[in-house]
What does this fold into?
Amino acid sequence: MTNLWLFTAFVIGAIFGSFICCQVRRVIVREKLRGFKKFKQKPSHCEHCNRRLHWWEMIPVLSWLFLRGKCRSCNATIGLVELLAELGLGLVFALATRHFIPELTTAMAIIPQIFAIPAYFLFLTLSCGLFAIFIFDFLTGEMPTRLLTFCIICAILFIGLEWAAAWDGGTFFWGLPLLMLASAAVLSGFYFVLSITPARTSGKIVGDGDWLVALPIAIVLAHPLLAITNLFLANIIGAIIATPFLITKKWRATTRIPFAPLLIVAFFITFFARPFIFEMFMLI
It folds into this structure.
């Protein structure tokens, strides 16, 4: 795997990240205008001064850095969501390319390795869906049901391809589906219980959609150890982010934090660190 392939994958991922962020914002605006006036699709523009953006102002990552995160006309701050989406999805595309592509180039003659091709594209598709959920939950605190369903379908197809690749001359490890169900019970089941458990103050401990976000993640991880690792990492990342705000009293103990983004970030870390996690616990 050459650095050129990895750089190309990063650029493509950054472009997709920019596109997804733009479309999510347009969907949010369209939903706000529903019932008041007809939504009209506009070219990319500044949300503050409505100036149409030039092509060189829409280059992923580079434009944000060149403009120092501000609009060239009105000097309004451009949120970090766009930059994080571009950098994050670009990194995921590069890591996925490094993870899947060597399997294609080293053993194309082996039948199970052929499943790595559709698995690679399915993982990228699932990653795009999860990033869209990340942005939706971060900006609005809500997640579209259709998008969640799309991610669940992609996860099922992906794990099916991994199981097909595990098939070896008529033998199949039937414990794989059981491990996946255990993973779903640990991760998604945990958040489902929390979603129906009332908090001491008001509302619920977590949102109604968090267990649905955890479901495709648990399906892809397909092992209870990885599910527990994902759960642990998500809470650790949340604690690291929240601690400075709590110390400076910008947040209160009752402040609600979008948890889907934490689950998604922890998922990518857990997925690409699978060999290290299993080796650490001496399971392989």
Summary: Residues 28 and 230 are 29 Å apart (CA to CA).
